[in-house]
Structure formats: structure tokens, C-alpha cells
Write a structure and sequence with these properties.
Strand content: 5-15%
Number of strands: 7
Shape: elongated
Structural class: alpha+beta
Order of helices and strands: EEEHHHHHHEEHHHHEEHHHHHHH
Length: 420
Amino acid sequence: MAVTTDVVLLPHQWKEDGTNLFRIRITKDRKTKYIKTSLICHKSDLDRKGNVSTQAIKDAVEDERRKIRAIINEADTHDLDAMDVDEAARFIEGKLRRPKRFTLDFVEYGYRVAEKKSPGNAQTYYVALNALVRYFEGRHPDIGEITVRNLRGFEEFIRAEKVVKVNRITGERKASRKTKEKGRAASLYLAGIRHIYKCARMEFNDPDLGLFPIPVDPFEYYSVPKAPAARHRDIPVETIQLMIDTRKSLEGRQRMAIDAFIMSFGLCGMNAVDMYSCLKPKRNGVLYYKRTKTKNRRDDEAEMWVKVFPCIKEIMKDYAHATHAFSYCEAYSRTDSFTTALNVELKRWAKKYKQDPFTFYSARHSWATIARSRRCNIDAKVVTAGLCHVDSSVDDIYVNFDWEQLWDAQKKILDVFKWK
């Protein structure tokens, strides 16, 4: 049944001051819905029969009727036929109430999107949005300003901007001579901006009702730059063996960093953030945790069951804690300060022993590289499970992983080294 409409005054809606609001009456399938308008009628605007006599009011009512007829005529007939009276009312109201220009503080909206991400990913969004504010000279741009021209300008701005180093103790900021030209910043920041823009379109556009306050997607015409290929961040077996051989001669934070690297390597490249928060093993000899980076992207919440072999357990004794697997949560107030301390000391150790510089993340890369090498020749699916990557293959949806396969792989990799 077709949608019928009219602009009417409801007799029971007169107020004590003698005013009433015109309402749009929408009828479909013998059901009626009313929508308030901003048109006010006084009793003095009516004649004795109750009809509107004031010409200005009559013109305004007729103008409202023309708008409604235009909305219905422009709408897809099949879409209207499929709507019930409530949907038809929302559709018409949305078209009438639609502002001339949709506005949205892109940065504030981006902050809301970031809040729903994991801490590590959220930080990337915050940094990208702060860079966007710098590009717009300290102000928050409207979503309408996220154009192809501004995206290209933002990319150039990122590449030319000087890298700023912040002293975590004093808070002092110092611009270095380096720029972000060759770094991953342009790719990461703009990928974040693209995701926020996509979220806004998904939230505010309503194709069912034909409402598109954000009709244009500038990313159809602008391509986010690809991240530069990451150099191989694994380190040689000999360097890891040197760590094992020298660890007992080290002291302080350097000893802590080398021990953390070796333990991470022995635990399938466990991330620093997970080592910081991981609780004590509930099952003897097996460490259970949910990988922070991917737990929100996997149906199993990125569960990991990693075996603690004697050579790793021996090192763990030096970092025992009442509730956690490691005492790092007691020594450091935040995960980022813990990660910084690790990387600073690993760099110093490498310089001291004339090794190429590397970071804590190299433990993860090295574990995977050695696992797939001729020495171990471990199946790729087992390595993927050990790294806890997001894997959407069909068999992984239906088949529970046999963790003993991973434990066998762990042993095979650890047996490559000589433990003292």
C-alpha cells in the first residue's frame, strides 16, 4: 500500500497559551504516525470553521507539503513499499531534518574510534590524529576537510616533519635532524585516518533510508602509501648463543634486558607487553596468556599455551613474582617504559660485543626464522600458531590446535643452542 501524507493540526495538542504545532501525518497499511514540525499556529490564525486563514501560515503549510511530496517522488517506489509506517516516518523525517551541511569533528570522532582499540593500536591512532592537528595548524578539522588535496598535503607534511625525541624523565622535546621521509609514519598515519573515515561513513550513512551525509570517500581517489618493506629483523644463531654465554657476567638493566630477550625467544617470541602482564602459570610448566596485539581480532581471543622448558625456567627464577610470571610489573610502572629500557640495553649490549644493533622484537623474528630454517624445518602452520597471528583458514575454525605440536617445535629450536 502506498504512503499517504498530510500536514495537520491535532485538536488535543492545543496548549494553554493558545498555540499548536503542525504535524506531518504519515499513513501506510492503515497505520498512522505523526512527526512534529516547527510550524506554530495560533488560534487567531483560524477562521470560525477551524481552517487556517492567515496567508503566511497557509503558504508555510503548503511549502511543507511540497517538500514531502518531493521526497516521496524522489524515493525508490519499491523501497517505500517495503517499509512499514515507522520506517517510512523515519525516512521522511531524516530527509526533512537533514542539515544543509553535515559537520563532524574528525579528530574527536577519531579519539572515540581509538578508545575501542587495544592499547598498542590505540596509540598509533592518537599519534596519527595529533599529527593531523599539527598539519591543520593546531585546530581540529571537520570531516568535510578530509579531501584528496588535504590527504596529499598531509602525506607531504609527515614526510618532511622532523623526528622529535622526548626525554621520558624530564619531558623535554628535542627535534632531531632526521625526517620521517623513509619511515613507516606516512603509511601508518594515513591508514589510521582511512579507517576512521570508513567508520564515520558506516555509522552516519544509512543506505536503507537513502541518507548519505558523508557521500564521498576521498580514499577512492587517494591511495595510502605502502609501508616500506621491513628489513629482516632476525639475528644470527651465533648472536643468541653469545647472549646465553654472556648473560651471567652482566649486571643491572643490561642483564635484565638480555634475560628478557632469551626468555621471549624461548617462549615463541612472546611480546614485551605480554611478559609484563602475564600471570603465573596455572598449569605446571605451561604458560597461558592471551596475546594483547591480536586478542580482539581472533575468535579464540588469541589464547596461547607455551611450554616453559628447564633452560628458560632457570632464568625465570630470577624474576619470580607472587602473582605474575615475571616481576617486570613491579619494576616498571608502564609497559612503554619497560619496552624502552629493553631496547636501550639491547643496543648497548650489541655495541659492547660488536654485534649489529637489534631490538627486543628480534626475538620473535629470530624464533620464526630458525623454526623455518633447515636446522628445524618446522611446519608453517605450527610456526603461525606459535606467533599467534590472525589466521582465517577454514580448518582452523573447526579444528582445535594440538599444543603439543608447538611444544615439540619449541624443544627443537631450543636444542639448537648450548645452555649452561
